[in-house]
Amino acid sequence: MRILVLHRIPDSFVHYADNVDHDAHEVTYVSEPARKHTLPEGVPARRLERPGDGDTAAEVLEAVAGLPTPDVVVALSEFDLLPAAQVREALGVPGDHVADVLPARDKVMMKTAVAKAGLRVPRFLPLPVALAEGAAAVPWHGRTILKPLAGATSEGVARFATVDEALEAARRAEPALATDDFEIEEFIDGELLHIDGLMMSGKPAGVLASRYMGSGLSYAEGNPLGSVQTDTEPDLVDWVARCLNAIGIDDCPFHLEAFDTPEGPVFLEVGARFGGADVVDCFELATGVRLPSAHLRLLIHDFGGIPAARTPEPHQRYGWFTVPGHTLGSTHCRITGEQPFRDDPLVVRWVQREAEEPISRTVSYADSDIPLAGVVGPATEPELRRFLTDLLATVRVEPAAR
Fold it and tell me: Is 0.90 surpassed by the pTM of this model?
């Protein structure tokens, strides 16, 4: 089989050599120059470069021009799912095409599909419709979220006290918003969950719920974020499957976010890919399944190589935390108050920037970009929540001159 990989996720995360027989298959990786060092080593494969500063699909197609048509196109990053669909269409390769991918990328399309299945979603409108018809035509009046249709890491997301404030901000935005690429939605009160797992042939093959401590939007604003695994009831698994079936997510990992309200879960959004931050490691520690590796095997149709997910006992839960630095206004930081926590037996992994190591000035969940991150467990949910609450309240991150 000829396998074309749109490479973005490091081999250390995916474990390509463990999941693809490079001797039995003809594997071609297309990578940006800055990511070449994260390709798998010691395996026979064709390694091609693309510039990385233009349209991804166009660059990939140019890189592979003249090569035999692949049998499979692999993309694991959220940012490559749509380009991979475009490459499949251009080359006539089976798999998800653009129409299959869009419902899991476009937040209006996904909420529309879930609502049509009879499941609750926040009320929403495409931004051009709301701007044209005015606040009086919007079916809610209170707190409102303005967000990109296909955004990630909560970039470009903003919250407002009223619909009027959100629309006025959109009108006055500098630089001007590409309004066709945005929506508004009502703010929902409720604890935020993320639910992760695998869909195989349209059925959930492993589902695990976690409760956020903070939110993606709060993290984008500069506040710490984390989550702790919680009970995953059968009713929640059924509800998740109905959401994913409505959107058309059949054979891949998923990372779904929902509000836990007294009336039941409210769908927020979903990605047809594994979650960011340290969701993958926590999921593997609890269930024995590494989602990026499973995603790769699903794409090359090796379902038999995916282990069955185990169900963790209540005392075998895990959690993760991230402390951002992109709002510090500095490329370096100083961390204080962390010492009592980093040596605690609950800590599985602790990643901390040293004084001379730079941090990212843009939103990132990568351990290598931020001041502090880690994984904790195994323990009960209350024990993990207490530990992370104390940690995030105590640790201080300040800008530092180099």
Answer: yes
Contacts 24+ apart (CB under 8 A), 134-139: 134/167, 135/162, 135/163, 135/164, 135/167, 138/163, 138/184
SS3 302: coil
Going by their DSSP bridges, the two strands 2-6 and 72-75 should be labelled as: parallel
- E strand or H helix at 30: strand 26-31
* 197 in Cβ contact with 279 (< 8 Å): no
- Report the percent of the chain where pLDDT is more than 70: 99
Which residues touch 254 (CB under 8 Å, ≥6 apart)? Answer: 195, 196, 197, 198, 199, 240, 244, 270, 271, 272, 273
- pLDDT score, position 153: 64
Per the structure, the complete domain to which residue 157 belongs is given by 123-186
Contacts within 8 Å (CB) and 24+ apart, 223-226: 223/324, 224/321, 224/322, 224/323, 224/324, 224/392, 224/395, 225/277, 225/321, 225/322, 225/324, 226/319, 226/320, 226/321, 226/322, 226/388, 226/392
> Burial letters for 309-345: b for 16+ Cβ neighbours within 10 Å, e otherwise?
beebeeebbbbbbbbbbbebebebbebeebeebeeee
If asked whether residues 182 and 214 sit together in one domain, one would say no
CA distances to 60, 258, 274 from 130, rounded to whole Å, are 37, 24, 32
Task: Please check whether residues 163 and 203 belong to one and the same domain.
Answer: no
Which of residues 79, 95, 111 is at a domain's end?
95
* % pLDDT > 90, the chain: 88
- Report the domain count for the chain: 3
Position 114 in a domain: no
How far apart are alpha carbons 389 and 287 in whole angstroms? Answer: 24
Residues 222 and 160 in one domain: no
Res. 150 pLDDT band, cuts 50 70 90: confident
pLDDT tens figures, 44-62:
999 999 999 999 999 999 9
Of 186, 214, 240, the one marking the end of a domain is 186
Same domain membership, residue 298 and residue 178: no
